[in-house]
Design goal:
Elements (H helix, E strand, L loop, with lengths): L27 H19 L6 H12 L6 H8 L3 H13 L3 E6 L2 E9 L1 H22 L5 H18 L8 H13 L8
Antiparallel strand pairs: 1-2
């Protein structure tokens, strides 16, 4: 059964308060938290059948993006403990979604590669995740509002992450490819 218009799947339609009169409307933390919680819930529902949920999606998208990152590099990039990453990769591999292949330049390292089944699964999950995102963004009036919101959010995210370690040009290009596939467009330079 479809979710009521204007609500996220699995939630009850509650009256939508006027943003101008909401007591917390000027509180950035509250606004970011509310949007984040809505996104996390929608993403978990959209990716429910995938081992590792949203984190498994990030790993699968990276493996399908022909980035061929090592498990260690990907664990560092996603902020996942190496041991947790190993279990996540084991689950994705057991599901036939990824393969770990020897790195030709370092026999001790393993590169992550999506299987054909993994790429098909990622395409289906991309559609489900985009639909969940559109439902979340349905609170914005028009497609143009949604585009502007995504663009401003990317700009803010780039600014906020400026203090994080600098990426190599290859990592930036890989991030842009993943962002494009995720429907958020190229990252601004």
């Amino acid at each position: 059964m479809a979710a009521p218009s204007g609500s996220l799947a699995g939630t009850r339609a509650a009256p939508v308060p006027d943003p101008e009169t909401c007591a917390l409307s000027n509180d950035l933390g509250w606004a970011l938290g509310a949007v984040f919680r809505g996104y996390v819930k929608a993403a978990h529902e959209a990716l429910a059948g995938l081992p590792g949920g949203p984190r498994g999606y990030q790993v699968l998208a990276s493996a399908a993006g022909d980035e061929h990152r090592s498990q260690q590099a990907l664990a560092q990039r996603l902020g996942v403990d190496r041991t947790v990453m190993t279990y996540l990769l084991d689950d994705l591999e057991a599901a036939g979604l990824i393969e770990r292949r020897p790195d030709p330049s370092d026999r001790r390292a393993r590169r992550l590669v999506a299987t054909p089944h993994g790429r098909d699964t990622l395409a289906r999950l991309d559609q489900q995740l985009r639909a969940a995102e559109e439902q979340l963004l349905s609170g914005l009036d028009t497609g143009e509002d949604r585009h502007v919101f995504r663009r401003l959010l990317r700009r803010l995210a780039v600014h906020a992450s400026a203090g994080e370690p600098v990426q190599t040009p290859c990592e930036v290009a890989a991030d842009a490819a993943v962002a494009q596939r995720a429907g958020v467009g190229p990252l601004p330079c």
